[in-house]
Design goal:
By secondary structure, the chain is an alpha+beta fold. It folds into 2 domains: 16-28 and 98-177, 2-Layer Sandwich (Gyrase A, domain 2), CATH 3.30.1360.120; 32-94. It has helices at 41-52, 109-114, 160-177, and strands spanning 16-18, 21-26, 32-36, 62-65, 68-74, 77-80, 90-94, 99-106, 131-136, 139-147, 150-156. A hairpin with a 2-residue loop joins strand 9 (131-136) and strand 10 (139-147). The radius of gyration is 17 Å and the shape is globular. 35% of the residues are buried.
């Protein structure tokens, strides 16, 4: 009988280390998009506070309470990593199998991302818990700074292998250069 082995969204592509930069998979069992109905943003924020201990962050930001995140992902939409009930206040959609997330860390991480992302991600402008929708190479992503030398990149699950490929190419180029 076949023995089934569960694989993450990135299969066996991660972890990946090139030079001083490492990519690892971030596993979140649940992800829900939350899109407040017109005029209900404050009520949704209050509902999240009651249920999860955090409120909706501002545009371009992320909040965390323990292992739970609430992150802006676009016009009037957020992603939450826990089930929520917001009946009559927001459209809540299970996205758990739709996204793949990786963490990219290391001393040269900004140099790697600068090759692929058309945003200024340096720590002076893009601080911890800042998040943006952008392109990474040709892929639409959500990118969030999680630490001084750490970012999370979220992509549609079907694009996970392309994300790793593009990052590996950039990581190899930066490592060959010898410094950030």
């Amino acid at each position: 009988m076949a023995r089934l082995i569960a694989l993450g969204a990135f299969g066996d592509l991660l972890p990946l280390q090139v030079g001083d930069v490492t990519c690892t998979e971030v596993v979140r069992e649940t992800l829900f998009s939350v899109a407040p109905y017109r005029g209900q943003q404050k009520a949704v924020s209050a509902g999240l506070k009651t249920q999860l201990g955090l409120t909706l962050p501002a545009v371009g930001r992320r909040r965390a309470a323990g292992d739970v995140i609430c992150q802006w992902i676009g016009h009037d939409a957020w992603i939450v990593s826990a089930p929520v009930t917001l009946d009559g206040l927001a459209a809540v959609t299970d996205q758990s199998d739709g996204y793949a997330t990786l963490e990219i860390t290391g001393a040269s991480v900004e140099a790697v991302l600068a090759r692929l992302v058309p945003l200024d991600l340096r720590s002076a402008t893009f601080k911890v818990n800042h998040t943006a929708r952008s392109l990474l190479g040709h892929l639409p992503v959500s990118i969030t700074r999680t630490g001084p030398q750490a970012f999370e990149v979220m992509v549609m699950r079907s694009m996970a292998a392309s994300l790793v490929h593009d990052l590996q190419e950039a990581m190899t180029g930066v490592a060959a250069r010898g410094s950030a």
